[in-house]
Amino acid sequence: MACVAVTWARPGSTYTDKWDNINVDEILESNRLLKGYVDCLLGKGRCTPDGKALKETLPDALEHECVKCTGKQKSGADKVIRHLVNKRPDLWKELAVKYDPDNIYQARYKDKIDAVKGSA
């Protein structure tokens, strides 16, 4: 749901690594930047090129357990999820309503989500 570095796929391999070097910590530490990405994902605001790519790729990454994600994208996703679950549950809930209205992914990833709770 929050794979900030996830982007377009090359057939049969991984998503492009074009944005693998995005500073995820900088985004998470800035309410303005984080809100911009979340608003993009929720369709409430304008998207940067990387935000647009994330918005287009996120459903596939969720459905297929980030199998096409690069190592950096998986690491970034884990960091973003940990931050949202522990420090911004309001944003986590909004994203879950949009990208997981039937609670499919919350159930599928329950153990992973529970494991990051309290480990900001």
TrEMBL record:
Protein name per Swiss-Prot or TrEMBL: Chemosensory protein-14
